User: Which sequence fits this backbone?
């Protein structure tokens, strides 16, 4: 066991999946439910991408400028980061360190690169879960339905990246296809509760 793993007690659940597969919706439902409310802390990432109207700053993301992001990175305040469609996304290091020190379980929504990094940092404590959409057609409908202002070119790029992300899905500990929301929330809850009770 590595030094870092010996020091932490909690588990880190990393959820990945193509944009529009339903990660945010599933995570919000999961955390709203009574079973997990006080057992899991969600990390809110920094991002330089524009804010969507349905998103709550500070809950869904901390929306910051590129200069602010660079300053945080230089100050080593970002645990891991990625670039997606020209925007930067990063996990706040201080928040994660603080929660881990308290022995809390953490939930992160990250791309494949982020999932790998967290697994590398905390191999014995990380559980990775991939959320897929039932089909690319459904994925496109969900991306379009989520925000009517999303440009055609951005949708095309998100779908192109989705195909790449699907290829990595087998590398995750768990994989779920988010067809019925209610069923998927149940599946996700069972995975998390199952691992927490081990
Ligand atoms: P992600 O966080 O993976 O990018 P979202 O959670 O933002 O995806 O979901 C994208 C859109 O799909 C949202 O409008 C959401 O309400 C919808 N959605 C999520 N899960 C389902 C589902 N099982 N069935 C139908 N629509 C869904
Ligand atoms: P979106 O713009 O759809 O909210 O997010 C785009 C992608 O960035 C998604 O795959 C999402 O999971 C990922 N992402 C969001 N925040 C972070 C982060 O802090 N780190 C990493 N590595 N990926 C992130």
Assistant:
């Amino acid at each position: 066991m590595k030094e870092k793993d010996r020091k932490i007690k909690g588990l880190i659940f990393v959820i990945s999946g193509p944009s529009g597969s339903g990660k945010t919706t599933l995570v919000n439902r999961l955390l709203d439910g009574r079973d997990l409310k006080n057992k899991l802390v969600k990390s809110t990432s920094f991002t330089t991408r524009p804010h969507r109207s349905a998103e709550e700053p500070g809950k869904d993301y901390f929306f910051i400028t590129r200069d602010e992001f660079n300053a945080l990175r230089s100050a080593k305040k970002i645990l891991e980061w990625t670039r997606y469609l020209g925007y930067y996304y990063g996990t706040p290091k201080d928040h994660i360190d603080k929660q881990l020190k308290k022995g809390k379980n953490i939930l992160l929504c990250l791309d494949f690169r982020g999932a790998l990094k967290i697994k590398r940092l905390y191999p014995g404590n990380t559980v990775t879960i991939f959320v897929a959409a039932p089909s690319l057609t459904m994925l496109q409908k969900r991306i379009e339905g989520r925000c009517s202002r999303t440009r055609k070119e951005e949708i095309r790029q998100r779908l192109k990246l989705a195909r790449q992300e699907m290829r990595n899905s087998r590398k995750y500990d768990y994989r779920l296809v988010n067809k019925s929301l209610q069923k998927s929330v149940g599946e996700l809850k069972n995975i998390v509760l199952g691992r927490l009770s081990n």
